[in-house]
Amino acid sequence: MGSPTTSAGLRVPPAWDLPDPYAHIRAEARVLREHQRLSIAAAAAALVSGIALAAVAPRTAPGVGAVLGAWLVAAGALHLIEAATAGGGSRALTGVGGLLHVTAGVVCVRGLPGGVEALAVVVGVAWLAGGIAAVLAAVCGPRGDWALRGAVLTGLVGVAAGLALTFWPAATLPVVRGVALAMLAGTGALHLLLTVRATRPAAC
């Protein structure tokens, strides 16, 4: 059966051929839900790692490295999950950041022969490069408003912590622990804020 016509002889397309006026709203809602789930997981990983680093990990470089390595692997896995669902130019950047985190995490868990200095450099470089990739991915990606600001701030926290560890003169274990705790606290707090913001209705 063909398309209906008006009295003037104009063809009217069937209803199922018309574009969905709410498609972009549903797509945005899916993106927000995905960001919320990832933010909850990232905040939980940062909280658990922070507690382990502050209270459980032995006060030795291998113990600190194991905790930070486990967190890097968890954070990298979340980045890879985000990359799998991302679109546009942010997919590659997020994936690169995730691979850097996972690789550095595995190296830290397996142990570094260089002691505290090597641990500071490996973790610092991973945070620095991962933070830069996160900022670029946020700018290039489809995020908007609060999601964009939150992703940029989270990336900048990583950049700041990475710079501190990488270029700190004669980094000691207390310095590495202190910078790492600040990094985990800042990252966890930002992800919690993003999660709360995602549950709030948009302002009219």
Automatic annotation (TrEMBL):
Keywords: Membrane, Transmembrane, Transmembrane helix. The chain crosses the membrane at residues 38-57, 63-81, 93-112, 118-139, 146-168, 174-194. This is HdeD family acid-resistance protein. It comes from Pilimelia terevasa.
